[in-house]
Amino acid sequence: MTEIDAKTDALVPAWLNLPDAAEQLGVEVTRVRQLVKEGQLIAVRRGENRVLQVPSAFIGDGRVVKGLMGTITLLKDDGFSDEEMLEWLFTEDETLPGSPVQALRENRGTEVKRRAQALAV
Fold first, then answer.
1. Which of 66, 70, 48, 47 is nearest to 58 (CA)?
2. Name one Pfam family in it (predicted).
3. pLDDT band, very low/low/confident/very high, at 25 (cuts 50, 70, 90)
4. Alpha helices by DSSP H, 18-121
5. By residue range, what is the domain housing residue 100?
């Protein structure tokens, strides 16, 4: 969990603070904190009060987007920082098409994971 830079902030269209993320997931805030601590969700400090927030695109239909946790694990194993992971997930890739997070939301996780694995080479 780190401070976010303007470049990453510009890439991510919408954010949720942890209580709002918990509400969307139908879980307690402590569970969201646990997901962040376990590296299954990325949270960064944003705004004037440096409040911990997660990209709203990571949550859909009351759960963490399918394939996100595995993709985060692959990127972490490749040595990516939280900011680098957010940048990669939210940057448009014309070969997908769209951004990796968009592809995950559209249930195209296999392609996203393939690209994440290719980064390690």
1. 66
2. Rv2175c_C
3. very high
4. 18-25, 29-37, 68-77, 82-90, 100-105, 109-119
5. 2-119
- What are the tokens at 13? 């269209």
Question: Would you say how long the chain is, in residues?
Answer: 121
Report the interhelical angle of 68-77 vs 109-119 (nearest 10°).
10
Sign of CA dihedral 10, 90, 17, 42: negative
The total number of structural domains that make up the chain:
1
Paired sense of beta strands 2-3 and 44-46, if any: parallel
**CA angle at residue 38 from 96 to 52, to 5 degrees?**
80
Rounded to two decimals, the pTM is 0.90
What's the confidence (pLDDT) of residue 1? 43
Residue 90: both structure tokens together: 């939210």
Residues 28-77 have pLDDT tens digits of: 999 999 999 999 999 998 888 889 999 999 999 999 999 999 999 999 99
